[in-house]
Amino acid sequence: MNLLKKAKGFWGTIVLVVIFSVVTQLLINGGTLNSFYVNTLFSIGINIILAASLHLIIGVTGQFSIGHAGFLAVGAYASAIITMKLGLPFPVAIIAGGAAAAIAGLIIGIPTLRLRGDYLAIATLGFGEIVKIVFLNIDYIGGASGMTVTHLTTWPWLIACVVITIVVIVNFTNSTHGRACISIRENEIAADAMGINTTFYKVMAFIIGAFFAGVAGALHAHNFYIIQPPNFGFLKSFDILILVVIGGLGSMSGAVIAAIALTIISTFLSSYPEVRMVIYSLVLIVMMLFRPQGLMGSKEITSFLKLGKAAKGGVHHDGKNTVA
């Protein structure tokens, strides 16, 4: 019965997403949404993928990584090479961008994920800076001047990637492997003592998170026409980290809501460049003072819906509703 309810809930959500996607596409085609709103919408989608992918690494597995922009850069440049240099289709570029970032995640994950806490953060920060410096010195991809990329990111591709990212990460989190990752987050020593291969699961989460960051990189590269190494520095990693922390560590719903809210705030504050970062910083400070656990804490939005149902109907007993 529970399985049937979950299936209904899943397909109901998919139907709503399809309706939203079709309506949005019609608004874009009809010119109702101008380029400003379309770019904001695309930025929200890309940030949702980035927030969800980092959520798996930090929120689910508890590994403090601040080099996520490095995977974004690898995916962006790998996909740009596929389309601009090799002339292959955009879908191939998306997969190649994700695969390249996943390989980078494997290479950096095996030696560094034996570290913990601040040491891991420093190692991943170093990785992100190394990636940026390497791309700065490769003439084949434009070096410091960057690489011009054709605009190929469309709304259907963006929403499809967003949905796939969320579905894969949520299902992974709810699987046996995801439970192992959560146990590592809660107490790595206890998880290791219980026979869980902590290094294996940390690397697995790192690879999956890196893959989807690479997918976001592919969408990013083919949306903004030009990519430059300085755009993928440690400040970009901190921007992605803020999305996860503000949303609530361990909450996918929180990461998605934070990505939407902060992207909108940042976009509309761009009209005030003098005070933009001041206002943005104040919003973050106020948030941390009054809601340090984040918007959703470690809960999902579905848990609040269940609470609402319980408050209305209570627990069923002999065909009647009782107060829980």
From TrEMBL:
Pfam families: BPD_transp_2. CDD domains: TM_PBP1_LivM_like. InterPro entries: ABC_transp_permease, LivM-like. GO terms for molecular function: branched-chain amino acid transmembrane transporter activity. It is a multi-pass membrane protein. It is found in: Cell membrane. GO terms for cellular component: plasma membrane. Its main location: membrane. The chain crosses the membrane at residues 9-28, 40-58, 65-84, 90-113, 120-142, 154-173, 203-228, 240-265, 277-296. Keywords: Cell membrane, Membrane, Transmembrane, Transmembrane helix. PANTHER family: HIGH-AFFINITY BRANCHED-CHAIN AMINO ACID TRANSPORT PROTEIN BRAE, HIGH-AFFINITY BRANCHED-CHAIN AMINO ACID TRANSPORT SYSTEM PERMEASE. This is Branched-chain amino acid ABC transporter permease.
